[in-house]
Amino acid sequence: MSHRHTRTPLLAVAALASLLAFVAPDARAQAVAGATALDRLGGLYGAAVALDGELAVVGAPTESPGGAAYVYRSGADGWQLEARLEAPDAATGAFFGGAVAVDGERVAVGAWGAERAYLFRHAASGWALEASLSSSGAGTGTRFGAALALAGERLAVAATSQGRPPERAGAVHLYRLEGDAWRAWEQLAPDGLPSGARFGSSLALQGDLLAVGADGDSPTLSEADAAAADPGAALATGAVYLYRLGSEPQQVARLTPPPGGAAPAYGASLALADGLLAVGAPGGDYGGARSGPVFVYREAGSEWVLAARLGVEEGPSERFGPALALVGRTVVAALVTDNDLPEGGVRVVAFAPEGDAWQAVPAVLHADRVAGVRYARLASDGRRLLIGATVPDGAEAGSAWVVDGLPAPATAP
User: How many CB atoms lie within 10 A of CB 313?
Assistant: First the structure.
């Protein structure tokens, strides 16, 4: 692995003042010390990642025969492979490991090619299958298992193409653990979703709060915004739905891209923790941030208030924010060079809170400078960061890294 780094001008946009604050990190910034490589394998290893405490899970959805999920545990000897999970009914094209989640000693794995989700539980005898779930009655081609979120005794499973053709706007299935069995609880599918809304394209769950991305939804533009829009520009698309999962799920908010620029695929990535929500819109254009941005919202009573817009000043081949994580209150985002040039690859950058704003961290947290790396995934348990990066062509190689601790934010001049 090479660790060459290039200058990455970062910007943070103050939401209230609508000002761009450019921060120029040291061009020789190094990756954070303490980054630990888990593995570098084929099978799109790193296409999905999850982290909780001493457990890390990495999906390899095209590994033969039908995909796999690797479970690592941190101990006195560092991170060690503990188990390789497979579907009991593994079949080619199942894409088992295309989505993963972990909470405590329980792991959830999605297999959208087989339209199933699996739950595994660790016990004295090792890892064992606890449940196999499917979208019964929802038809075929639903992509059930495309995204997962697990917290305690609640599980959310996305079926991003569920619905009557041609709409197939998507749905999210909720499950609860009742005694020793996981049972279907509710199905979320807001009225009025347009064709291709991809409701469930991303999921984030903490406690009883569930965030659902729908990166193909179509927010309604005001007449002024519609008149001002550049006909040749990509318009805002996407929405994020927030639910409280009490005795019955209740929608408490619907977030859409704020005015001021194009935000295609708003909601393609999410991170949720302790009253903060980060929403990615890869490929957007806001106030000079040609790649991104990432929107940060703060919970204020019964409302979610836009607190910051984060972005990078990069070329058109860059995608900022296709994967997000929150490490404490620090927003971490992937920056992917979407080409096959030698300098291609993925970088991971961060913005740390200072007062009411977020400032760019000068160090590049991780840089995987492998030509052809086009996809990145991030996960955090609030203390550590897990990074997955994959090359979809050829050998379908991938890698995964754990980062312990984050550097301090840049000091304003």
Answer: 18
